[in-house]
Amino acid sequence: MDGWLYTMGAQDFAGGIVIHITSAVSGLVVCRALGPRRGFDPLGEAFPHSNLVLSAIGLGMLWVGWFGFNAGSSFAAGAQASEAIMNTHASACCSALAWLYMSQRNNERGNKPSFIAVMNGSIAGLAAITPAAGYVGIGSSMIIGVVGGLLSHWSCHVIRERLRIDDALEVSSVHGISSIVGTLSVGLFAYRGIKSGAGLTDGRGLFFGGGFELFFIQLMAILVSAAWSVGVTWIIIEGLQRAGLQLRPPEGHEEHGIDFVSHGESIRGYGAVEHEADF
User: Which value, in Å, is the radius of gyration of the alpha carbons in the chain?
Assistant: First the structure.
C-alpha cells in the first residue's frame, strides 16, 4: 500500500474513516439535496420508529457482527483480537449509558428510560471504537464510548433542529461524529507502537508519550476523507440530475408509501388498501 494518507502514517484499525466517516458525510450531502420528508418538523420529536422489535433484533445482529470485523482486523487470533473485542463491547455499553443519560436529561421520552436511546447509543459506541479498537486499552475505550455517545447525541439535535436536515437514521451523528471521536482518539490513547507507511518510530498517542504527531495525522485523515466524500457525492448527485433522473419520489407516492406504490403491499398492514385505486 502506498496511498498518501497511509504513507503519512494515518491509522484506522477497522474502518472508522473509510466506512463510517465517509458514508456519514456522503449521507449528509444526500439528505441536504433531497430535503426533508413530508411532515418533517425539526422543532418537534423525531419520526417514530416503525418496529421496535425489529430494531432490537437488528442491533443484536449488528453488535455480534461488529466483534467479527473489529477483532478480525488484527488478522490473527491473538491478544490484539481479544483486546479489540473487549474494547468494542466496553465502548458500546458506555456510549449506551451516555445516550440514556442525555435522553432523560433532555426529557425526550417524558423523563422515562428510553430503549431507543440505548440502541442508538450502543451503535454510536461501536462506531466510535472502530478506528481505535486494536490500539487502545480498556479504560481508554470506555472514555471513547462516553465521549462519542455524548457528542453524537448532541449532534443529532443540532442537525435536526438547527440545520433542519432530515437524516432519517441519524447516520451523520451516530456513525460520523462517533467515528471522528474514535479516529482522533488514536492520536490520544494509542498505548503501543503502530506500524505505519511513514515508519513512525513510536506511533503512540499523546497521553502515552507520543506527542501530537499522530493526533494531527489523524485529523488530516478525517478532513481529507470528508472533503473527498463531499466532492464525489456532489458530483454523483449532479450527474444523476443532469441525466434527468428523479432523486425523490413524487409527493403522492411519498404520502401513500413507496412500499405500496412499488409493490402493492404495505408494511403497516391493511391501512394502505384504500389507496389502491390511486396507483
Answer: 21
pLDDT in tens, the chain (279 residues): 578 888 888 999 999 999 999 999 999 999 999 988 877 876 555 567 778 899 999 999 999 999 999 999 999 999 999 999 999 999 999 999 999 999 988 877 777 888 999 999 999 999 999 999 999 999 999 999 999 999 999 999 999 888 989 998 899 999 999 999 999 999 999 997 676 555 554 678 999 988 898 999 999 999 999 999 999 999 999 999 999 888 888 877 877 778 888 887 777 655 444 444 455
Cα angle 44, 48, 51; round to 5: 170
Domains of the chain by range and CATH? 4-41+51-248 (1.10.3430.10), 250-279 (no CATH)
Euclidean distance between CA atoms 138 and 243, whole angstroms? 51
